[in-house]
Amino acid sequence: MPDIRHMRAAPTRAQALAPGESIDAHRHDEHQIVYAGSGVLAVTTDAGTWFAPGTRAIWVPAGCVHAHRAYGHLDLHLLGLPARTNPLGLHVPTVLAVSPLLRELIIGYTRGPLGDTPERRRLRAVLLDQLRASPQQPFRLPAPADPRLAAVCDLLRRDPADPRTLASLGAATGAGERTLSRLFRRELGMSFPQWRTQLRLYHALRMLADGVPVTGVAHRCGWSSASAFIDVFHRAFGYTPGTHNHRT
Length: 248
Hints:
The structure is a single chain. This protein has helices at 100-111, 118-132, 147-158, 166-173, 177-188, 192-209, 214-221, 226-237, 244-247; strands at 5-7, 13-17, 22-28, 31-36, 40-45, 48-52, 56-60, 66-71, 74-81, 94-97, 136-137, 140-142. By secondary structure, the protein is α+β, with helices and mostly antiparallel strands. It has two domains: 5-140, Sandwich (Jelly Rolls); 145-247, Homeodomain-like (Arc Repressor Mutant, subunit A). Strands 1-3-8-5-6-12 form a six-stranded mixed sheet, with helices on one face. The chain has a six-stranded antiparallel sheet with strand order 2-9-4-7-10-11, covered by helices on one side. The longest helix is centred in the last third of the chain and has 18 residues, at 192-209. The chain starts with a strand and ends with a helix.
């Protein structure tokens, strides 16, 4: 088993990560808010991967073993909160919407001088109020445990554009369609089409962060056309993929 770093306090700071750079698996005794001011952030645990562009943040609860990975040039903001401070009552990693005000509060708090000053206490109080009002977002790619399900998911991870049906993928991996369909819902909490859409959106964010044109992203992620990709992306994130790098 890899050595997992244990940090008693979750750091509060801003730092830059280069494309592809990562922070190895670790845990801390405090909760943490992880926000990407630019680029795309992925937080991975044994249960799956949570992903967020610059309009989202990821809540990581105290004690959760997790790793970070950057796509594009990542302007990373880390904000630690004591374990007793849980404004949303969340005990699993969760993606949160970030309003323009909350964005500025996070950036200001993580870049400002550290210390327990009256000004920082007031800033933190407003930040927590804004967190309580942040809607949760379903941007998670859960990881399968059953080997039959894992074999199908691995095929699609290697090629998100693979157009095969669940029946065809099951035939290629030695599992029945009905069995796989039940496993998707029981283990991953979503249907096969929902999981594949999440996978494609995750890959799309990564490619956009690396500067791949929208048409190329649509083709490489399996959408039938750029317009179909734009529609799904806009419904998921609230803006078009063509404006992605201008928003993060």
